[in-house]
Amino acid sequence: MTKSGKAQGNRGNDEYCIDGEQLAAVLAPRPRGLMTAAGSRMMLFFFRTYLPRFVIITALGFFALVSGASAGPSNAEIAAMKARYQRSTAIPYPKDNAFSTAKSALGRELFFDPRLSGTGKMSCATCHDPTLAWGDGRPTGIGSAGNRLDRHSPTILNLAFGELMFWDGRADSLEEQSIGPIQNPAEMTNEMPRLIATLRAIPSYQASFAQAFPNEEISAATIAKALATFERTIVSGQAPFDRWVGGDENAISEAAKRGFVTFNTTANCASCHSGWRFTDDSFHDIGLHDDDIGRGAVIEGIPELQHAFKTPTLRNIAQRAPYMHNGSITTLEEVVRHYAGRFVRRPSLAVELHRLDVTAEDIQDVVAFLETLTSVDPTFAEAKKQ
Questions:
Q1: Can you name the CATH fold of 11-90+237-371?
Q2: 187 belongs to the catalytic site
């Protein structure tokens, strides 16, 4: 477990990949451990988190000094940066919930069905709308009773590749996450026994479950597996940035190219927003004015986890305003300005954050780069008509 309280997944042992060895190279196994003694826990935190990030930050700082004295990074240096963002070529599925077309189709049907909620008026897609990059466009989510929730509805894009789920990482798997909101009294306000009885009484669901799960009854486990299987298929498509990484120099603007370099060097964004999904799947306090302690409420006794929230993916980020776990920032420009120095300084503040010496042009360039991460993806319009 890291300083962020993020479990290190044994992906090579626990997961089945459609494309086998290709994904294994991307998702290399990492050790999992349970730290019980405070001293051992903090020592492990240092070696797994502080030391590697110190090395990264030091290297980025050195690069910034060198590049600042020259015309900018060389073509070889930019190529090395681009190589870090090569897309994965296969979707990982756990061994105990392997992909099947029938299972995915059932999960899709369930995802868009308002009968999963206690009121019969709210589906998973109410908060995770495919036309809004699988968010809802609101500062914070709403419950089935019209009540306002405490946190912004996160996108479900690319969760197949994630580790811990929800803003605070309280769910260990996509299966666990998928049925959490259904039973949450503040969200979809249903009870699992009632939902199971509802689905068992619907002939079309009887047939769909029988096809997806032969010789199994409709249960919480099969509902979760179907939903999770569908959600794992929700992967962002090729964006202009991907075409640029693939060799098309005309795919993005010169401003976006400059923004990519700033993102990876002086702005230090890549220390958390790393890899092709632009997330480290970890938890950080980014200095928002907010009383929500996030991961600190899930794993107690670790000061660094106070106000820490999961690093969101940046894929399709231009379509997902407003931003942050509390929806408190409305534009990408303001997000960059926040990271440039508008954050609250407190003991739990992420070590990656420091005041940046960036210009207004630098900020616009970074925004131009972020806009290149938008892909054109299916909207599932026919499913939303349910």
A1: Cytochrome Bc1 Complex; Chain D, domain 2 (1.10.760)
A2: yes
